[in-house]
Amino acid sequence: MGAVLHDGLLDALGREIVDGVTPVGSALTLDGICVRFGVSRTVAREAMRMLESMRLITSRRRVGLVVRPREEWDVFDPRLIRWRLDGPQRADQLRSLTELRLAVEPHAAACAAAAAGRQEGDELVALTARMRRLGEEGRLGEFMELDIEFHARLLRASGNEMFAALTDVVAEVLRGRTEHGLMPPHPEEEALAAHEAVAAAVRAGDAEAAEAAMSLITTEVRRALAAAPATPSSSSGR
Known about the structure:
Elements: H1 2-18, E1 27-28, H2 30-37, H3 41-53, E2 57-60, E3 64-67, H4 78-86, H5 90-115, H6 118-136, H7 140-157, H8 161-164, H9 167-179, H10 189-204, H11 207-227
Antiparallel strand pairs: 1-3, 2-3
């Protein structure tokens, strides 16, 4: 029960900060939170600790817990990303995350092709075959989970620990696009073929082809979001 209370309080406070309901410079106190939400000081303190770890707030003597400027937030925190995707900043968050993917994932795919073994390549090819089947059947929830796994495997297979650390970030944007209706009922053929091309290139050890195919994926996502960044659209499945 305590974990449920803590998570609910954290989400409520975090979303209010991220959405600007509790603006930068606002001061929060444990007593005020306890009264407002009807929670114990222990629950309130733990939620505040988490918000501090995300750099959303900072403690100031004789003032309380103050909301920090946006440029100081830990923008790579998956929960913060989720809050932004759920609120009025969705378009900006999708845009910045897509720019990040465009900068990182093609090179990560090239690194994976150079570093991954035949078995990892075979597994990626098998994964994309399952993605095609689910995508053509319109089973978007299951497709999304496999898509997340596909991109996570590539980032980890790159051999670069900084790329691998972005797996949760990429997972949030892929999950967010599906949950907010920014995916078509069936992923487009171009998207399915590009995923298959990346997997085949990794299996073949062809870094140049892997990078080119992943660039097709991320570039098309950016193009689709630029056309309709904040509303459900016929954007390509990625």
